[in-house]
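Dear Dr. L.,

I hope this message finds you well. Following up on our conversation about the binding site, I have prepared a predicted three-dimensional model of the protein together with zinc ion. For your records, I am including the exact sequence and ligand specification that went into the calculation, followed by the structure tokens. Please feel free to forward this to your student if that is useful.
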Amino acid sequence: MLNKIKIMESSIEKWEKIIAGKRSDSGVVDCPPCRIYYMLACIGCPIAWYTGKKFCKGTPYPAWLHHQIQAHDKLLKKVYCDECVTLATEMRDFMAEIRDALKAEQAGETVKDGGKNKPHG
Ligand SMILES: [Zn+2]
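The resulting structure of the complex is given below.
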């Protein structure tokens, strides 16, 4: 569990840098949890654990991806406009939410229903 919290911290850091315009997003290639769990079809991934869905469904990621393709259609997925900042921030916040849920779970609090069934998008 500690390890998963660290993975989510890396993911938060990734999105912080995207928001700051310091890096781009390469999806599964540079997503810290994906790099470990994607090949296993998301089994054990903290994001899939939290949303109850695979391939980042139920997260703000599809909206980010859709916006990048529809509005910018560039090779690099990064911040190009205000909407990009908003969507990347939502992603960062969602990653932080999962990290907090992992911490709570580790602390022995029951977050199962409260966390998993929160509506997102
Ligand atoms: Zn944009």
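In brief: Residues 82-106 form the longest helix (25 residues).

With kind regards,
A. P.
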